[in-house]
Amino acid sequence: MTAELTSGSIEEAIFLASDNRYAYNLTSTIEAMIGRPLLSQNGRTLGGSSEINDMYSVRGSRELYNRWAELVGDQWSYDQIRSLFKENETYTGDTQNPAERGTNGPIFIRQQIIPTSGLIQTLTNETAQVLGIPVVQDYNTGIRDCTFYQGQYNQREVNGEFVRSSTATGYLNAQIVTPGNQFQSDQFGVNRRRLAIFGKTTVDKIVFQKKKKRGKYVAVGVDFVKNGVSMRSYARKGIIVSAGFFSSVILQRSGIGKTEDLTRAGIQTLIESPNMGYNMQAHAYVGMGVRVETSQLVPILLADPDQPLALGAFKAEHPASLEAYVKGSYSNFFHFGGQCRMAETIEEGVVDGFLNVFGTKNLKVADLSVSPILPDGNTGIAAEMIGLNAARFMKKDPNSCILSDDELEEDDDEED
């Protein structure tokens, strides 16, 4: 399936994202502000949303991550995570700061090919002059305020064509994962660590020990459904939830959340976590156009009899008319985060600065939902950085609470 999805075409990405085989296409209830529902798309294939997104590569700014550090700890400052961005990438473009870029990582990033002279360059220079913001060759160097004309994409050139570079192709390719099955796995990951991947499987909830340890519930397993059959797997050393848009839902089904929300869904509250599923942020946009003064535009459109020619333009100055236009054209990028946000206490968030779920042991969340503030750019690269930082945390504290076979069997007996 991954090979089918690795096209470097943004147009094909849009088509594939609308296919329910590869993405969860969900529609919200009517949004009161705009009087209509909004759509969310989230990857449901190996590589998740990195296999269906538009492949724009944006780290986010130094200022943004330093703000994270102020809220939850220096382990999220730009100086601390810059090495993770570099570790993650093989950058093949030009840059004004080579020390900022990685050259040997699993995710390939290319720079858009645009002539150094021409209309786009002219517009860029004029914009920079008007705004007083410098033109830079490479915006992925921690810069926030800049002007640029060459975008960057998660793509790799293969046999003269650009193909998608995703977490599936970068971290879970055939050189890393070998065929196996979920019962007697012979799948191996980096450094021969066992790695079993269950396809066509939906996670239900996290399983906890019945008795607390030092005032916290210990995560011991995962309930899931595979091919219509409910199953359970146990974990001695810990569980990581990396479901993005759905992470808060999994935790709520596990009994972690605001009591009134859980009660409404028929779920018994295990841990009162008032921020679970709240504080979600998203990037939004309002459509707008530019009037082009050229005699060539009309003949090109008229050359295709099936191409309707739009006459006139929306022009308005009255605030009510402008408000109506904004509501009518408002939409959202599929950049969601914050519903499991990091904070210092459970009264402020869902996980701590090291991604541990408040009130639990051996349970982390590692995806964009932990963002205290949504990254200031496309979010795919930021999500990958969060995963790498989670790995860094676990290496420093690998086994905070190792469970014995007896403890797991004891829990299983209690469940029966």
Structure characterization notes:
- Residues 317-387 form the Glucose-methanol-choline oxidoreductase C-terminal domain.
- This protein has a domain at 198-282 and 332-415: FAD/NAD(P)-binding domain (3-Layer(bba) Sandwich).
- Helices cover 26% and strands 19% of the residues.
- The chain has helices spanning 2-5, 10-17, 62-72, 78-88, 119-131, 167-171, 247-253, 259-264, 297-302, 319-329, 380-396, 405-415; strands at 23-27, 39-43, 89-91, 107-111, 152-153, 155-158, 161-164, 201-208, 217-226, 229-234, 239-241, 256-257, 271-272, 281-286, 330-337, 360-361, 363-365.
- The strands form 7 sheets. Strands 8, 9, 10 and 16 form a 4-stranded mixed beta sheet that branches. Strands 3-4-5 form a 3-stranded mixed beta sheet. Strands 1-2 form a two-stranded antiparallel ribbon.
- A hairpin with a 2-residue loop joins strand 9 and strand 10 (229-234).
- Helix 4 (78-88) packs across helix 11 (380-396).
Which short descriptors sum up this protein?
416 residues, four-stranded mixed β-sheet, globular, alpha/beta, 17 strands, FAD/NAD(P)-binding domain, 12 helices
Brief overview, please?
The protein is of the alpha/beta class and 416 residues long. The protein contains twelve helices and 17 strands.
